[in-house]
């Protein structure tokens, strides 16, 4: 064991390191391979029967987060996956040597303990410890009890500390796991197959986004980290997988904001012989199960507006251009195809106080009006349908108006949660849409996907659900970083 560095001889690290050295010198190494654990904290406490103290034996394990020294006894609390449980250690029960050793432990140390359950005079179910074992010595102290982690940079970089000391953050991130599990359960009940598709792609397709580029040494070529799951999953529709989904990581080399992280998680689901309206029913079903099984209520409070969002009532349906016309104050939609359509859209946006980039296409100007002036106002669940075809080259054109596509964007809490389409399965129309999207840069077009379509893809509904945004909505988080365990950050130059 190396000597304690001179420059930290008086800090807590040095003190704890000295304790570790003393333990090892006495023949005890606290870094154990395992310890017996029969129950998590909450499960153990449920076993106690009123009026029957010391009737149930349990073995628990966790991190010391509270220590109250009563002289000849100790009341402590340990933290495990389910929360905290109190332990009671008495010198004449565990023995003087073990008791003296326990008094040298520090907050943050991890122990295993076994004993029986009883209820204290204050009504707290507690383990009367008969034996304990130190299984991991914490050399670094936990953040101060009353100050916690106030530096958000440290919260995200040292998430493990945030999970130990911040109960709200811990509960929110655990809820994320339950949300994903509920989604998987709902889709399994509806006969969807979960699959995995490549993260490395030869063509960055399925969305309009800037990709991350990497080099594959063995194949001697550049690859892109995928920006969408769509084109691979629709190949599976061609192959006979009629109901298929993936919950996968997506990578877009773009900005970071309250709602955006360069690496994020998407659910993409495709159902043959369905359409975008079938996806409406599926999305409602996902939310029904989430509200019942995870949230425990069909109403949640929208943090920003204070409104109660009701998932049990009717979900509003509104056409995209009806909302645009209502916002600009005249029938802008009637000017589609007119020579001055762009000029009128630009003027309408300027009147609303929006800055318009001179290089934008008309549909981008109109969508800026939607994104900045309409979407933030849609708090209750709303399906915005029939968007301009230029916004998505992968959707089915509307039979009555081929300038529109059969899609919806589901907006809840002023934020897009899920887009869905009636999928384009005509290979000739799909090629035209791709060509219009990529322009002269034909190498960006996924010709293998077009080849797959030529073998015949059944009509289908497809939907994407941003898992991170869904978690923001359902947990009331301030930022996407609060629902991602390890959000993207610039590398730290800290040395520990």
Describe the model.
It is built from 15 helices and 18 strands. The model is unreliable at 1-9 (pLDDT under 50). Helix 10 packs across helix 12 (362-374) and helix 11 packs parallel to helix 12. 32% of the residues lie in helices and 24% in strands. The protein folds into two domains: 6-136, OB fold (Dihydrolipoamide Acetyltransferase, E2P) (Beta Barrel); 167-315 and 380-482, 2-Layer Sandwich (BirA Bifunctional Protein, domain 2). With 496 residues, the protein is of the alpha+beta class. It has helices at residues 12-25, 41-46, 91-94, 96-102, 152-157, 159-165, 167-189, 230-238, 276-295, 320-328, 341-351, 362-374, 427-438, 447-454, 467-475, and strands spanning 57-69, 73-80, 83-90, 110-119, 125-136, 193-194, 200-201, 213-216, 221-225, 243-251, 263-272, 299-301, 308-310, 316-319, 382-385, 407-412, 415-422, 460-466. Strand 12 and strand 13 form a beta hairpin. The strands form four sheets. The protein has an eight-stranded mixed beta sheet with strand order 6-10-11-18-17-16-15-14, sandwiched between helices. Strands 1-2-3-5-4 form a five-stranded mixed β-barrel.
């Amino acid at each position: 064991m190396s000597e304690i560095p001179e420059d930290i001889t008086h800090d807590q690290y040095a003190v704890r390191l000295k304790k570790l050295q003393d333990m090892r010198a006495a023949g005890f190494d606290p870094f154990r391979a395992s310890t017996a654990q029969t129950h998590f904290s909450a499960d153990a406490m449920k076993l106690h029967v009123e009026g029957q103290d010391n009737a149930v034996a349990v073995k628990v394990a966790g991190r010391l987060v509270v220590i109250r020294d009563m002289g000849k006894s100790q009341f402590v609390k340990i933290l495990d996956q389910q929360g905290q449980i109190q332990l009671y250690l008495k010198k004449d029960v565990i023995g003087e040597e073990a008791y003296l050793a326990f008094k040298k432990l520090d907050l943050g140390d991890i122990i295993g303990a076994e004993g029986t359950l009883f209820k204290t005079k204050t009504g707290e179910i507690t383990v009367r410890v008969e034996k304990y074992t130190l299984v991991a010595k914490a050399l670094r102290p936990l953040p101060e009890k009353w100050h916690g982690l106030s530096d958000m940079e440290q919260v995200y970089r040292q998430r493990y500390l945030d999970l130990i000391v911040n109960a709200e953050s811990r509960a929110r991130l655990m809820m994320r796991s339950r949300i994903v599990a509920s989604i998987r359960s709902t889709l399994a009940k509806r006969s969807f197959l979960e699959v995995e598709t490549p993260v490395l792609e030869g063509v960055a397709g399925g969305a309009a986004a800037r990709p991350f580029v990497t080099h594959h040494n063995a194949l001697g070529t550049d690859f892109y980290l995928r920006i969408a799951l769509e084109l691979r999953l629709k190949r599976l529709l061609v192959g006979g997988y009629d109901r298929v989904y993936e919950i996968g990581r997506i990578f877009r080399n773009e900005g970071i904001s309250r709602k955006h992280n360069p690496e994020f998680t998407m659910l993409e689901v495709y159902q043959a012989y369905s359409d975008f309206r079938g996806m409406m029913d599926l999305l409602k079903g996902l939310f029904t199960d989430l509200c019942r099984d995870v949230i425990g209520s069909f109403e949640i409070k929208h943090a920003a507006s204070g409104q109660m969002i009701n998932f049990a009532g009717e979900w509003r349906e509104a056409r995209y251009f009806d909302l645009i016309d209502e916002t600009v104050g005249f029938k802008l939609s009637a000017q589609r195809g007119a020579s001055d359509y762009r000029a009128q859209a630009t003027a309408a946006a300027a009147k609303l106080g929006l800055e318009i980039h001179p290089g934008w296409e008309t549909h981008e100007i109109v969508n800026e009006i939607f994104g900045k002036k309409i979407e933030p106002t849609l708090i209750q669940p709303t399906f915005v349908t029939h968007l301009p075809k230029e916004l998505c080259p992968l959707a089915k054109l509307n039979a009555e108006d081929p300038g529109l596509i059969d899609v919806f964007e589901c907006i809840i809490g002023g934020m897009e949660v899920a887009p869905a389409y009636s999928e384009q399965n005509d290979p000739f129309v799909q090629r035209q849409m791709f060509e219009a999207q990529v322009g002269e840069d034909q190498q960006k077009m996924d010709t293998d996907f077009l080849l797959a379509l030529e073998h015949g893809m059944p009509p289908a509904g497809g939907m994407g659900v941003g898992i991170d945004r869904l978690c923001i909505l359902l947990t009331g988080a301030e930022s996407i970083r609060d629902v991602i365990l390890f959000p993207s950050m610039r590398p730290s130059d800290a040395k520990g």
